[in-house]
Every structure is written in structure tokens, then in C-alpha cells.
Amino acid sequence: MCRHLAYLGPAEPLGRLLVEPAHSLFRQSWAPRRQRYGTVNADGFGVGWYAEEDPVPARYRRAVPIWGDQSFADLARVVRTTALLAAVRDATVAGADGEAAAAPFAAGPWLFSHNGAVAGWPDSLAPLACSLPPTELLSLEARCDSALVWALVLNRLRGGDEEGQALADTVLEVAAAAPGSRLNLLLTSGETIAATAWGDTLWYLAEPGRRTVVASEPYDDDPHWQEVPDRTLLAASRTDVLLTPLKDPREQGGPPEHGEPHTHMASAPPKEPRT
């Protein structure tokens, strides 16, 4: 399993979002509060962020625990961004891919992370892998389940699907092929965030018109954090958060279908003045 976080809002140093909060992603690497599977996320980490007037994000990824990288401490202190996606990793199985297996994965304007595990990997997804163009399979950054899930999402994005639909359809397809998989996916373009809650925790913090944070778990004790129900697609911008239920393909009596249209808009109430 892993812990991950995406942010849209005013420019902030990476460290203010990822290191300084009391229960930050940095701390979640060894002391997550709500992680359902695994206890330590020490098999690598990564952060991707967007610079002003550049739609293609930069990334910094390592195969070491985040607390052991002094270069990241310097980077987090001085780099500022209005949008990011970061993750700390607990590998499902041992592998030799190193930092290539650490999220975020990237292509074009997108950053992607997978918190979970594909049941029966790799045999369970062999048919889905065969459905991808050979060049996309040969371009996989790593040989882990998350990299293949990202390839399935990216194939849909390149085919014209909007971001939430690409995540929803991929989750339903993988869940049908590998029942029991945990598929919390997180995707950002720097302007929007899409995510799925499927087998593990997902939360969001919204200040409409200012900032939106989507994370595996709250990084502080702000009472405005809201939990996303399991089997749900989240689509967010800086102004709103939309939640859509996802149907388990085993309950549909047939092959996975597209997720239902957005049915619920949720936004946090304005903060009370601090005293």
C-alpha cells in the first residue's frame, strides 16, 4: 500500500504541504493513522509539481524512505507550486525497479498514483495488458501493478476520455479482472484532480475558490476534512468537489460499464475565524 496526496491552490512551498503538518505525508511514511494495509511506507517516494507557465510537471523520485533523503528536505524548503501530487510507497511485492516504480507516474500534463494492490498480479491482468498497443507496453516505466494500471488509464486519456471517466472505467475493468483488488487512484493535470476510493481511505479538504486537497488521510486535525465513501469517484477543481458512486462489476451481472454521471456535489463550509 501507499499514501498519496494532491493539491490545487495558492503557491506554497512543497514542505508546507508535505512535511510541516502534524500528520504530513512525510510522517505517514512511518506513522500513518488510517492505513488499512501495511504499516510503513519506506520503499520509495515521489513528488511531481507544476511551475508557472509550464503545463508539463517536474518530478523528483527516489527508491529510499523519504525521511532519509536530505536533498528532498532542501527541495521542499524552496520549491513553490500551485499544484502537486506526491506519494510514499509500500511495495506490494519485492522488485528491482527502484525509483521507476515510485509514484507519481507521468505523461504530458498528467501525474498519477495508485494506492493499493492488484489481486493475483501479474496473471490476473495479462488479458488487459494484451489489449494495450505494444508500444505502450514497451514504454512501461516499471514492471509493477501500478505501472500497468497507469498504462490502462493513460490509454483511455489519449483516446479522448475525460480524467474522471478514465479512472472510473479502469477501476471497474481491473476490479472485474482481479476481484479483491484495492484501487485508490489519484490523477491531476495541474488544474483538476480525479480520484477513486476503492478499498482504502480517501479524504478531501475544500475551501471553494481557494484550495482543494485530496489525500489518503488528513494531514492535520482541521474539522473540515471529509471522508470519501468507498466505491466512489471524486472529481475536483479549486471551486468544487463532485462525488459519484461506482458500482462493483460483480454486482452488475455483466461486464463493467461507465461510471454513472456525477450525482453529488460536496464542498466544505467556509472556515470559522481562528482565534
Automatic annotation (TrEMBL):
It is an enzyme of class 3 (hydrolase). Catalyzes the hydrolysis of the gamma-glutamyl amide bond of hercynyl-gamma-L-glutamyl-L-cysteine sulfoxide to produce hercynylcysteine sulfoxide, a step in the biosynthesis pathway of ergothioneine. Pfam families: GATase_4. It comes from Streptomyces avermitilis (strain ATCC 31267 / DSM 46492 / JCM 5070 / NBRC 14893 / NCIMB 12804 / NRRL 8165 / MA-4680). GO terms for biological process: ergothioneine biosynthetic process. Gene3D superfamilies: Glutamine Phosphoribosylpyrophosphate, subunit 1, domain 1 (3.60.20.10). Pathway: Amino-acid biosynthesis; ergothioneine biosynthesis. It catalyses: gamma-L-glutamyl-hercynylcysteine S-oxide + H2O = S-(hercyn-2-yl)-L-cysteine S-oxide + L-glutamate. One of its GO terms (molecular function) is hydrolase activity, acting on carbon-nitrogen (but not peptide) bonds, in linear amides. The gene is egtC. Residues 241-275 are annotated as: Disordered. InterPro entries: EgtC, EgtC-like, EgtC_Actinobacteria, Gamma-glu_amide_hydrolase, GATase_2_dom, Ntn_hydrolases_N. This is Gamma-glutamyl-hercynylcysteine sulfoxide hydrolase. It comes from the Bacteria.
